[in-house]
Fold this sequence. Notes:
mainly alpha; two-stranded antiparallel ribbon; globular; 43% helix
Amino acid sequence: MLHKVLSTQVVKNSLPLKKFNYSLDFKAIDFRQHPELYCIGKGEQGVLLVEPYKSEILPYWKFRTPEIAHQSAEKIYELFLAYKSQDDFVGMDMARKFLQMGYTRSRRYANHKSGRKYDRNSRLILPPEEDPIKAQSAKIFYEKWQLAKIDLEYLKLSDRHRQQYEQVTESISTHYQLTTETRE
């Protein structure tokens, strides 16, 4: 005998992402003057290319010790808030990317003291060598990155940017949807 099962669940949709355009002449573009050329991309894409933000944020990006990481993450988050007060989404997103990169690079060194994840010859992943100091640095950056990426104004401006410049019609608010399916 077949039974119909009604299942309801929350499904996380993947927002369509416009691919980061690496073919732009990044040395000639001021993204503060031309935010329409900025593409959010995936993760940290473009973090070391987009000016003038790279030059404004990079000098503060450090993670050698937890103390240095704390100062760095605090300063970069302050820049995030300053960009927010100026309604500057590109600046906010670049600060978010630097915080994310602080986390990912610290984690890389926390897992592999040399910073090298793969063996040069075999390209196999090297065994982890835990560095608790870098792990603390990673945690510091992670906390600030999470604050930035869930900031309501950041999410609103991200939606607006995607809709205006990246031809994305969905918003973050529709990123999660309730689905109901019937199975026999």
